[in-house]
Specification:
Layout: E1 5-7, E2 13-15, H1 18-28, E3 32-34, E4 46-48, H2 50-69, E5 74-76, H3 86-91, H4 93-96, E6 98-103, E7 110-112, H5 113-116, E8 132-135, E9 139-141, E10 151-153, H6 159-164, H7 166-173, E11 179-188, E12 203-213, H8 218-235, E13 243-247, E14 260-267, E15 270-281, H9 283-292, E16 298-299, E17 306-307, E18 310-317, H10 318-329, E19 330-335, E20 338-343, E21 354-358, H11 366-377, E22 382-384, H12 390-400, E23 404-408, H13 410-415, E24 417-422, E25 428-432, H14 436-444
Helix pairs in contact: 2-10
The structure holds glycyl-adenosine-5'-phosphate.
Length: 456
């Protein structure tokens, strides 16, 4: 360990300025920008740049593949963000989705009391107001008249869209528990203290599954989803040592939960939640049945079996997870006597899978390089770069996590082959252009990082 490293909570040594380096890289290389920066931004709101947009999409696709595409028992929906406010009354969000807000009478700063105790972190004063509940839902009005009858809320979680559509989905898709409904999308919370870059923002993306099960099977499925979800983060490149599963204490459980375990990541400031896996029991279906007057239960006509399913909910944040993948992937090493920074991202998460780099801008090379680019573009996200020296271009691709660089050189014109360079090992090999697509496909499909499927 050198002087600039620290041991974080998981016991792993990392650069002490890791967080600043990642935030800086995000801005410099077009992952994440402060929102509306030309107007001075707006606190803790971010815009995703060209590379961040690609990576966030890849994170969501990786989740989608595992949670929807590769399963036989999950279907998906895409519910409205603005919905009938009765949904939030029934779900308990209107009454209980609050944080305890305190003001510092000395410096006028506002805080979440559960995060600061009795002392203002800014000025050290203990002269704080009593805590009062602050509802985190953003309120708006539907239509031109701003009165109480037109109030609506931006959804604070995607989950309720699945509960209110339970009967529609089960009926239209002829499903029987155990089955799941998955959804990805924006959620909004008027957080009192957003911060730590995109860890806690007021607008963010969630990836949630509501998995409906016979009540007696709930404990078994809860354990199943805890293992499954922990495994997913590892499969996509986060080292096992940087992850843990933490069981919630009784006092911290949400109003709907009979048991929650969080998948936590060792962020540079300590352990933080990536995903909560809750046993929501039959709380939501029963609450919506009571408020709507509709029967929300499973009924088997043949056997006469009837019950309200329990729900196991793995609820992840896409934007927060993307940040964890970036932090876990950031590395520095030495190549050819030169220091480089490299994002060792899983190839499926990297913004570009392939960069095509003609050795020179000479007219003789450009047509072949463009031909290679266009043959690969239909299969992979590719970047083309013909600026600066080849060494600098490799460094740039390393820094944005591109797993493979394809160099088209003058020999390529004669031998119909190109050089393929591996981001992690920097090894180079010659590959026939006709074999490129299948070589890249098998490279991208390899198990990644320290992941071993049988470890847990
Ligand atoms: N439906 C249950 C639910 O929403 P949650 O633990 O409040 O549970 C799930 O949220 C996930 O959404 C969190 O684990 C986190 O990854 C993400 N998330 C929650 N609030 C967030 C915020 N303000 N900014 C970014 N991500 C957030």
């Amino acid at each position: 360990m050198d002087d600039s490293s620290i041991i974080t909570q998981s016991g792993v040594s990392r650069p002490s300025d890791l967080f600043d380096k990642v935030v800086n890289l995000c801005k410099r290389r077009g992952f994440v920008f402060p929102s509306a920066e030309i107007y001075g931004g707006i606190r803790s709101t971010y815009d995703y740049g060209p590379l961040g947009t690609l990576m966030l999409r890849n994170v969501k696709n990786a989740w989608w593949r595992a949670m929807v595409q590769e399963r036989d028992d999950v279907v998906a929906i895409d519910a409205a963000i603005l919905t009938n406010p009765k949904v939030w009354e029934a779900s308990g969000h209107l009454a209980t989705f609050t944080d305890p807000l305190v003001d510092c009478r000395n410096c006028k700063e506002r805080w979440r009391q559960d995060q600061i105790g009795d002392t203002c972190p800014k000025c050290g004063s203990k002269d704080l107001t009593d805590a009062r509940p602050f509802n985190l839902m953003f309120k708006t009005f539907v239509g031109p008249i701003e009165d109480d009858s037109n109030v609506a809320y931006l959804r604070p979680e995607t989950a309720q869209g699945m509960f209110v559509n339970f009967a529609n989905v089960m009926g239209s898709m002829r499903l029987k528990p155990p089955f799941g409904i998955a959804q990805q999308g924006r959620s909004f919370r008027n957080e009192i203290t957003p911060g730590n870059f995109v860890f806690r923002t007021r607008e963010f993306e969630q990836m949630e599954l509501e998995f409906f099960v016979p009540p007696a099977e709930a404990p078994k499925w809860h354990e199943y989803w805890c293992n499954e979800r922990l495994d997913w983060y590892r499969r996509f490149g986060i080292a096992a040592a940087l992850l843990r599963l933490r069981v919630h204490e009784k006092e911290e459980l949400s109003h709907y939960s009979a048991g929650t375990s969080d998948v936590e990541f060792d962020f540079p400031w300590g352990w933080g939640e990536l995903e909560g896996i809750a046993n929501r029991t039959d709380f939501d279906l029963k609450a919506h049945a009571a408020h709507s007057g509709e029967r929300l239960e499973y009924f088997d006509q043949a056997s006469g079996e009837r019950y309200v399913p329990y729900v196991i909910e793995p609820a992840a944040g896409a934007t927060r997870t993307m940040m964890a993948f970036l932090i876990a992937a950031y590395d520095e090493d030495e190549v050819g006597g030169e220091r480089r920074s490299v994002l060792r991202l899983h190839p499926h998460l990297a913004p570009y899978q392939v960069a095509v780099l003609p050795l020179s801008r000479k007219e003789t090379l450009t047509p072949l390089a463009r031909e290679v680019l266009h043959s690969l573009k239909t299969l992979f996200m590719c970047e083309y770069d013909d600026t600066q020296s080849i060494g600098r271009r490799y460094r740039r691709q390393d820094e944005i996590g591109t797993p493979l660089c394809i160099t088209v050189d003058f020999d390529s014109l004669d031998d119909g082959a190109v050089t393929v360079r591996d981001r992690d090992t920097t090894e180079q090999r010659r590959v026939a252009i006709s074999d490129l697509a299948s070589e890249i496909t098998s490279h991208l499909a390899r198990p990644f990082g320290d992941y071993r499927p049988t470890d847990h």
